[in-house]
Amino acid sequence: MPGLLLGDEAPNFEADTTRGKIRFHDFLGESWGILFSHPRDFTPVCTTELGRAAKLAPEFAKRNVKMIALSIDNVNDHLSWSKDINAYNNDEPSEKLPFPIIADSKRELAIKLGMLDPDERDKDGMPLTARVVFVFGPDKKLKLSILYPATTGRNFDEILRVVDSLQLTAYKKVATPVDWKPGDSVMVIPSLADEEAKKLFPEGVFTKELPSGKKYLRYTPQPNP
């Protein structure tokens, strides 16, 4: 099945959305972008996911991230479903969400991007879209992809954390360790020599001693963006 690999450029597709027709590259502009797919409108897990995404939209906007969802239903269904999503959040049940939803009723975009779940099908036997997350950088290239089955809801707080890591490591010569959160210490990348690391990170580089004697666990306080 076709799909996207890390480093691939996002296809510049045209699509109908809840905010009219878009061309994807124009929609992204110079921003980071998140494209996340859903199996179907008016379904329980999807409703909770879009509700959480709507709540976190201001946090993504602070990070210069544009969000856009995709489902295999049409625009009218998306707009009607948006009322339920807002009601789930205990907000005014309007058709407006802080991000557009792509209509992909023919599954053309889902097939092109490798988003279909072969194990989940609708009443007509057609495959539904899986829970895919694509994160694109300002260069329109894929920086991260996450694939969940239709039966497992995603953690949007984790997606926000991942964006923080991607943006930090895109501009600083560091990597983020396991369970890292913004403000925690980060790791100096292995390709950076000790002398250069000392110059780049004036707050200090701290090396953990290991039985192997290899000094590869090098930490430094998180640098400013």
UniProtKB/TrEMBL annotation:
Xref: CDD domains: PRX_1cys
GO molecular function: 1-acylglycerophosphocholine O-acyltransferase activity; peroxiredoxin activity; phospholipase A2 activity
Active site annotation, chain numbering: C46
Keywords: Antioxidant, Multifunctional enzyme, Oxidoreductase, Peroxidase, Redox-active center
PROSITE patterns cross-referenced by the UniProt entry: THIOREDOXIN_2 (PS51352)
Reactions the enzyme catalyzes: 1,2-dihexadecanoyl-sn-glycero-3-phosphocholine + H2O = 1-hexadecanoyl-sn-glycero-3-phosphocholine + hexadecanoate + H(+); a 1-acyl-sn-glycero-3-phosphocholine + an acyl-CoA = a 1,2-diacyl-sn-glycero-3-phosphocholine + CoA; 1-hexadecanoyl-sn-glycero-3-phosphocholine + hexadecanoyl-CoA = 1,2-dihexadecanoyl-sn-glycero-3-phosphocholine + CoA; a hydroperoxide + 2 glutathione = an alcohol + glutathione disulfide + H2O
GO biological process: cell redox homeostasis
InterPro entries found in the cross-reference section: AhpC/TSA, Peroxiredoxin_AhpC-typ, Peroxiredoxin_C, PRX_1cys, Thioredoxin-like_sf, Thioredoxin_domain
The enzyme's E.C. designation: 1.11.1.27
UniProt similarity note: Belongs to the peroxiredoxin family. Prx6 subfamily.
Name listed for the protein in its UniProt record: Peroxiredoxin-6
Organism: Sphenodon punctatus
